[in-house]
Amino acid sequence: MKHLIIFLLLSFIIIATSAALADQAQTNSSELVIHITGFDNSKGVAKVSFVNSKENYKADMPFKGFNYEIINNEVIKTITLPYGEYAVKVYHDENGNNEMDTRIFGIPIERYGFSNNARGTLGPPEFNEAMFNLNSPKKEIFITIQ
């Protein structure tokens, strides 16, 4: 009987601790819903990079990267991310060659965009222009590629 009581007590502690850790994990992460529009067609994929630092942004080393299917000329996806600062980069890889095609002087041929619909003058916008805070259980962002 004594062993049964100890077993039940330990089981209760383990279950309570697991529930507390699960609640903590849920409150430290967010469901980010991303809406991307401006595609001329649904060919190819949307190459989407989530960066979580100025260093990742400049080095083009994403925190997370995805190829999203374009349906009816738009992308709507939900991703779970830990709280923090992020920027999103996206381009339409219409021909599926896994690179952003450019003209002379590096001018992009394929459509692209950034979170906050940030635009650079002679190149991509700075991280702080595209950066947003993810600090709530759910957030939506909208990007229009150009």
What would your notes on this structure say?
- The protein is of the alpha+beta class.
- It has helices at residues 2-27, 54-59, 127-130, and strands at residues 29-37, 45-51, 64-69, 75-82, 84-93, 112-114, 132-134, 138-144.
- The strands form 2 sheets. Strands 2, 3, 5, 6 and 7 form a 5-stranded antiparallel beta sheet that branches. A 3-stranded mixed beta sheet has the order 4-1-8.
- The chain is globular.
Helix-strand layout with pairing:
Blueprint lengths: L1 H26 L1 E9 L7 E7 L2 H6 L4 E6 L5 E8 L1 E10 L18 E3 L12 H4 L1 E3 L3 E7 L2
Parallel strand pairs: 1-8
Antiparallel strand pairs: 1-4, 2-3, 2-5, 5-6, 5-7
Tags for this model:
146 residues; alpha+beta; single chain; Immunoglobulin-like; 3 helices; 5-stranded antiparallel β-sheet
